[in-house]
TrEMBL record:
Keyword terms: Membrane, Transmembrane, Transmembrane helix
Presence of the UniProt keyword Membrane in the record: yes
Keyword Transmembrane: yes
Protein name, per record: Acyltransferase 3 domain-containing protein
Membrane-spanning segments: 12-32, 52-79, 100-119, 139-162, 183-203, 209-231, 243-261, 273-298
Domain Acyltransferase: 12-314
Record-linked Pfam families: Acyl_transf_3
A GO term, aspect molecular function: acyltransferase activity, transferring groups other than amino-acyl groups
Family annotation (InterPro entries): Acyl_transf_3_dom, Glucan_succinyl_AcylTrfase
Native species: hydrocarbon metagenome
Length: 365
């Protein structure tokens, strides 16, 4: 694609957003360990005021950072597809996404599952039959490598659209021209909010197996496509500048609503229908507002090349096997540690899988 309205230069602020979001993964999942909701191998939830420090970290991150990662992956896919045909794009996706996913599932996830089992009182010496067969859901299967699997599936689904837009670039130009007129940018924003309202209350399993996880599939796939359109069309990028101040206002209000909901449900374990309805509405508004705010802020302050960014962007995906060295050490440590130390050590043994696999493979072009 060689559209007249696209500047062919790397959007360094997109790289920075990816890096900064990935850096929040460790504190976010550390907080999930001690909260009522959230899927992590080690759970030790607390209630009352003890949960407040963890909510302060979890709430602003939990309801948007995965949506931002899929949006950024859509941006990166535009650069990737722009330099390849469909066949090479699929091969590149296989190499960057499914290769580390498969190896991570076979070698990393069982180690983390074993540490989880030890935490839960497992005294056996061979957990593989349990992990790969009858207890696979209990041990979360491919765990947080689900992002790689979802992203690969989305990439395959979108190949016909990307190929069509590459073959006839006037189509993507018309999409950008349409969205850039008046307040039509509210259409994709409203669409995301509508998906949250209609699907999130009914399809929010937390199992991350695609089938049945329709709320996440619909929202993340839509944002992946929106990210592609954003990267392909300079008019769309410029139009989003007009929504910077509204994103601050609506982002602040929706974040306050999310804190209100989580204080009731995760600090005091109080559940009510109106809290669930408020949560899905606030989540939809907040994730859109946060993405728009961060795109504008990063474009203004972070759109520059730097040596640290260049280093972080070149981390090899095989660095995820760092956990193979770390986990046996932690296993030996846990067997001689007290309960509290064991719990915290299990948590940190899980975090590198998240950080390095996601960062190294979240759809870079």
């Amino acid at each position: 694609m060689s559209s007249e309205n696209v500047e062919h230069k790397r959007l360094y602020y997109i790289d920075w957003l990816r890096v900064l979001v990935i850096l929040t993964i460790i504190p976010f999942h550390a907080s999930l360990t001690y909260l009522r909701y959230g899927v992590v191998p080690i759970k030790a939830p607390v209630s009352g005021l003890s949960a407040l420090p963890f909510l302060i970290v979890e709430v602003p991150l939990g309801d948007f950072f995965m949506t931002l990662l899929f949006f950024v992956s859509g941006v990166s896919s535009w650069y990737s597809f722009n330099n390849r045909d469909a066949g090479r794009y699929i091969r590149e996706r296989l190499q960057k996404l499914m290769q580390p996913f498969g190896l991570g599932f076979l070698f990393l996830c069982p180690v983390t599952a074993y540490i989880q089992a030890l935490y839960e009182g497992f005294r056996g010496g061979f957990i593989l039959p349990q992990f790969f067969w009858y207890d696979i859901f209990h041990y979360h299967g491919y765990m947080h490598l689900w992002f790689l699997f979802y992203l690969f599936v989305f990439s395959l689904i979108c190949v016909p659209f990307f190929k069509s837009w590459q073959r006839d670039e006037s189509r993507i130009v018309r999409i950008g021209a349409f969205l850039s007129q008046g307040n039509r940018m509210l259409l994709p924003i409203g669409f995301i909010v509508l998906l949250e309202l209609c699907l999130r209350p009914f399809f929010h399993t937390g199992d991350y197996i695609i089938v049945g996880d329709w709320a996440n599939v619909a929202v993340y796939l839509s944002l992946f496509i929106f990210g592609y359109v954003y990267a392909a069309n300079l008019h769309v990028q410029e139009k989003l500048k007009e929504y910077f101040k509204p994103s601050v206002v609506f982002g602040t209000l929706s974040l306050a609503a999310l804190y209100f909901v989580n204080i009731h449900t995760q600090m005091f374990y109080y559940d009510a229908f109106y809290l669930g309805a408020l949560w899905v509405l606030a989540k939809g508004v907040y994730e859109c507002s946060a993405i728009i705010f961060l795109l504008n802020f990063a474009k203004l302050h972070l759109n520059r090349k730097s040596r640290p960014l260049g280093y972080l962007n070149k981390l090899p995906s095989r660095f995820i096997f760092f956990t193979i060295c770390l986990s046996p050490f932690l296993h030996g440590f846990l067997s001689t540690s007290k309960y509290t130390n064991s719990r915290n050590s299990c948590l940190w043994s899980h975090c590198p899988t998240w950080q390095f696999s996601l960062y190294a493979n979240c759809g870079k072009g």
